[in-house]
What does this fold into?
Amino acid sequence: MNFQCYLNYINIAGQTLPTPEQVEQQKKRGHHGGT
It folds into this structure.
């Protein structure tokens, strides 16, 4: 797998599967009553 394909895979996976960081950010927003 070349590097460009790897980046594309990361982009696709990022759109469908949230990263732990995104999950934590969403949890923090929820605690603060954000959308």
Notes: The chain has a mean pLDDT of 71. Residues 5 and 30 are 34 Å apart (CA to CA).
